[in-house]
């Protein structure tokens, strides 16, 4: 999550409008695509930051590039353009996702394992750990890490649950050396 106060304010305003209009899900999907565009096309950011291009032309460009996007998103982009805050788009998406997840009782989690998790394993991990962090469900991203040797390492925000074989061996080593 970002530390940008501006991004949090824009995200909260957009989230409240999305909730009011019952469009939280579709807007979040559009925002994730928007984030990909801004992260992969640095030239777009440079073009939109250019003082040579008038604001009206920039708005036309945004309208053309994101013509399939929700109007609330386009309006948010226009406001951010007017306030010279388009550099906060990626942070806005992250903040919106955090507000949306919080409202839905969802937490983002990274599960590090030596092999890909099956759907059943992911569901079991989600069920077991969601309650521990006060959420209904975990949205799991599985990351393959052969250095674990076995077991899993789960990260939910700042909380890490480590039941990997490498961590257990390290704890055993410290206990043997310490005694």
From TrEMBL:
It is a peripheral membrane protein. GO terms for cellular component: plasma membrane; proton-transporting ATP synthase complex. Keywords: ATP synthesis, Cell membrane, CF(1), Hydrogen ion transport, Ion transport, Membrane, Transport. SUPFAM superfamilies: N-terminal domain of the delta subunit of the F1F0-ATP synthase (SSF47928). The keyword Transport applies. Pfam families: OSCP. It is found in: Cell membrane; Membrane. Its main location: membrane. The keyword Transport applies. GO terms for molecular function: proton-transporting ATP synthase activity, rotational mechanism. InterPro entries: ATP_synth_OSCP/delta_N_sf, ATPase_OSCP/d_CS, ATPase_OSCP/dsu. Belongs to the ATPase delta chain family. F(1)F(0) ATP synthase produces ATP from ADP in the presence of a proton or sodium gradient. F-type ATPases consist of two structural domains, F(1) containing the extramembraneous catalytic core and F(0) containing the membrane proton channel, linked together by a central stalk and a peripheral stalk. During catalysis, ATP synthesis in the catalytic domain of F(1) is coupled via a rotary mechanism of the central stalk subunits to proton translocation. This protein is part of the stalk that links CF(0) to CF(1). It either transmits conformational changes from CF(0) to CF(1) or is implicated in proton conduction. This is ATP synthase subunit delta. It comes from Sporosarcina limicola. The gene is atpH.
């Amino acid at each position: 999550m970002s530390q940008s106060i501006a991004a949090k304010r824009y995200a909260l305003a957009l989230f409240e409008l999305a909730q009011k209009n019952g469009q939280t899900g579709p807007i979040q999907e559009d925002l994730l695509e928007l984030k990909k565009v801004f992260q992969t096309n640095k030239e777009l950011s440079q073009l939109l930051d250019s003082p040579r291009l008038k604001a009206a032309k920039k708005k036309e460009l945004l309208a053309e590039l994101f013509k399939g996007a929700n109007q609330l998103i386009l309006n948010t982009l226009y406001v951010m353009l007017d306030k010279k805050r388009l550099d906060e788009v990626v942070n806005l998406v992250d903040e919106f996702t955090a507000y949306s997840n919080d409202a839905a009782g969802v937490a983002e989690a990274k599960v590090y394992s030596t092999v890909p998790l099956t759907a059943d394993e992911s569901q079991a991990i989600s069920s077991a750990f969601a309650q521990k962090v006060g959420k209904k469900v975990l949205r799991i991203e599985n990351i393959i890490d052969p250095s674990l040797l076995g077991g899993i390492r789960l990260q939910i925000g700042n909380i890490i649950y480590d039941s990997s074989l490498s961590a257990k061996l390290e704890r055993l080593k410290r206990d043997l050396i310490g005694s």
